[in-house]
Amino acid sequence: MSDRQATFDKVAELIAPFNKKGVTLTEATSFQHDLEWDSLTVMDFVAAIEDEFDILITMNMQAEIETVGQLVDAVEKLKQTRD
Amino acid sequence: MTEAVQADHRRPADSAPAAPDRDLMSKFDALIAERQALLDSGVTDPFSIVMDAVKSPTEAVIRGKDTILLGTYNYMGMTFDPDVIRAGKDALDQFGSGTNGSRMLNGTFRDHMGVEQALRDFYGMAGAIVFSTGYMANLGMISTLAGKGEYVILDADSHASIYDGCKQGVAEIVRFRHNSVEDLDKRLGRLPADAGKLVVLEGVYSMVGDIAPLKEMVAASKKHGAMVLVDEAHSMGFFGANGRGVYEEQGLEGQVDFVVGTFSKSVGTVGGFCVSDHPKFEAIRLACRPYIFTASLPPSVVATAETSVRKLMHAHGKREQLWKNARRLHGGLVQMGFRLGTETPDSAIVAVMLEDQEQAVAMWQTLLDRGLYVNMARPPATPMGTYLLRCSLCAEHSDAQIDAVLAMFRAAGEATGVLPG
User: Fold this and answer.
1) Which residue on chain B is closest to A44 by alpha carbon?
2) Which among B265, B318, B330, B397 is annotated as catalytic?
3) ipTM of the modeled complex
4) What does the pLDDT look like over B170-191, one tens digit per residue?
5) Is the dihedral of CA B84, B310, B117, B203 positive or negative?
6) What Pfam families does the annotation carry (chain A) (predicted)?
7) CA-to-CA distance for B115 and B273, rounded, in angstroms?
């Protein structure tokens, strides 16, 4: 399994507790339109991602991330920066 | 001539324009519909209250009815102080009604210098800069202090002016869970060690009235090399031995880099400010766009502010009365069975938590009909799913008024089913 796929799987696992509507996750799943997350849910989820990967996702970055695929790409990039 | 000009601008009743199917205003359709649904249910619009007359810091006439005010930020009751009013009148007579300009050019008058000196004296700090509102103070300070490649770290429950200050600037923004020292420490630890960092905190969080664990938060900030700005808008006048705020109450003088405040709450007028002991603080005046590119406060306003700030330095009796009122209201409401935002009377704000918008509006309307005005708060001013009635106490509330307030809450609670009948 590629690193990216592993990251996708972990992201999907972390989304699960917040996926109240049971949306099927794809690269194109949108946090705002498909998952319908409010601001506080976003913060809790981002905190979970940050803790899992030991990275920091600023609000500036969050504003640019609309889909699960974009988040996985961002996490991959931040992991490389960290390492 | 004047009447003719006015008549020309009146629109005939039958010519109201029809909105097009779709334009830039369409994005507000959901908001318009939600407000209309509220009005159609027969209640008064909670966000369109008009004070027909104001009789004192604690009484007004609303919709023709004498009403106790428990939803203003007039914590220290300074709005009708005779010395404050006289200072404003004198300034109007001597300097006219407005300044017309920015502090940087033609907008600095004697009383702007006077109120900044009063703030230096009040806070015991070397630097003070006055802004046109508290909102502008946060907007200006945060956007100017943190530059490109630097970080602002803020509490998730921060006031809109703090969030807007972040948006106005070019720094990277990181937020942490409300009042969580652990979360703050963890996020600071993930930031580049050598990057500039500004941690923004509030002494009292205005929606629920809870206070920040500033002592631990400032310690965490300093450990990671961050500067600290504390907004003490809802604490000035009655926290700490000198009324400087929660940071003074928790023994943090000399450890907080910037304190932001407002004149629209305890001071009883309008305006905002920042005080600091930093030796380069004056440079803010040269770089801060919300300071440079806006009109300065009218002379009457800064004159009232100066007098009020100086009087607040010695308002020990008022401070005691305000805390006594907060304890009585908080205790009385708890005893009746209301769910409050804080377990103890942490500040002059007492928030009554309710289940949903319908319950909140029903309680608010019943209280207003009985002669009590409080604030109804709902998202986005509060977190998702949080509806509350916010009571703000005043040092001028009498014991009899607090008794009357409690009686009205009991009656409204029973009438609306919030309390068991």
Assistant:
1) B177
2) B265
3) 0.90
4) 999 999 999 999 999 999 999 9
5) negative
6) PP-binding
7) 10
Q: Which residues contact B277 (CB under 8 A, 6 or more apart)?
A: B125, B126, B127, B254, B257
- DSSP H or E stretch at residue B158: none
Q: Rounded to an integer, what distance in angstroms lies between the CA atom of residue A39 and that of residue A58?
A: 14
Q: What's residue A1's pLDDT? A: 64
pLDDT tens sequence across B201-243: 999 998 899 999 999 999 999 999 999 999 999 999 999 999 9
Contact A10/A41 with Cβ under 8 angstroms? Answer: no
A25 part of contact set with chain B, CB < 8 Å: no
CB atoms closer than 10 angstroms to residue B332:
18
Question: Are B221 and B192 contacting, i.e. CB atoms less than 8 angstroms apart?
Answer: no
DSSP calls for B275-323? EE--TTGGGHHHH-HHHHTSPPPPHHHHHHHHHHHHHHTT-HHHHHHHH
Cβ contact, residue pair B383, A47, below 8 Å: no
Domains and CATH numbers, chain A: 3-82 (1.10.1200.10)
pLDDT at B5 exceeding the cut of 80: no
